[in-house]
Amino acid sequence: MSTPQPQQISINELDLSQLADVRQQLEQELNHLSNSFAQLRQAQAKFKACIDSTAEIKPQNLDKTILVPLTNSLYVPGKLCDAEHVVVDVGTGYFVRKSRAQATKYYTDKVAFIQSNLEALEETIQKKRDNLSYILNTMQSKIQAEAQPVKKS
User: Fold this and answer.
1) To the nearest 5 percent, what fractions of the chain are helix, strand and coil?
2) Would you say 75 and 69 are in contact if contact means Cβ atoms under 8 Å apart?
3) What confidence score (pLDDT) does residue 1 get?
4) CATH code at 98?
5) Which of the residues 44, 67, 110, 115 could staple to 75 if both were Cys, CB 3.0 to 4.6 A apart?
6) Can you tell me the distance from the alpha carbon of 73 to that of 75, in angstroms, rounded to the nearest whole number?
7) Is residue 91 part of a domain?
8) Is residue 9, in this structure, part of any structural domain at all?
9) Helix crossing, 100-147 with 16-56: angle to 10°?
């Protein structure tokens, strides 16, 4: 049994209230996509900060007192006892011991993966903006057409 194909309707066939509904839906989608884009940018920035932090761990800092971040605003004093390995948060509460080089590669790969997602998302956002612009232009044309006085013969 074949699945029914989605029915396509020309934008020009819709009345103003239907166009307003489509516009509202597009605006909601754009808002959601824009929020997702911002969250991906934040995640990418955090991974870049992890790359920088990993680079700061150096053998000459062994047994020196350092501030260890527990959160973005809470640090506790600690001593660096292993300059070659770090603990990496790989998600959902799992942590893995990796060498500095492995950790840097892990974070670099994450940054690249997020970048590819950002590029795809940016393309989708642009298409949605173009669609919204087309809907707004169509609505404006319909409003102007309705405002034109009807000529009597």
Assistant:
1) 60, 15, 25
2) yes
3) 54
4) 1.10.287.370
5) 67
6) 7
7) yes
8) no
9) 160
- pLDDT band at 3, cuts 50/70/90? low
Q: How far is it, in rounded angstroms, from Cα 86 to Cα 72?
A: 18
Domain assignment present for 31: yes
Q: Which two tokens stand for residue 17?
A: 């209230």
- Helix, strand, or coil here: 67? strand
Band of pLDDT at residue 145, cut at 50, 70 and 90: confident
Q: Looking at per-residue confidence, does 58 or 31 come out higher?
A: 31
**124-to-3, 44, 99, 110, 117 alpha-carbon distances in Å:** 26, 19, 38, 21, 11
Q: Which residue has the tokens 């997602």?
A: 117
pLDDT value, residue 147: 81
The rounded distance, in Å, linking the Cα atoms of 41 and 128 is 19
Looking at the structure of the chain, the number of domains it has is 1
pLDDT at residue 5 above 60? yes
Give the domain range for residue 52: 17-56+85-140
Instruction: Indicate whether 26 pLDDT > 80.
Output: yes
Terminal-to-terminal C-alpha distance of the chain: 55
Cβ contact 142:14 at 8 Å: no
Transcribe 34-52 into DSSP letters: HHHHHHHHHHHHHHHHHHH
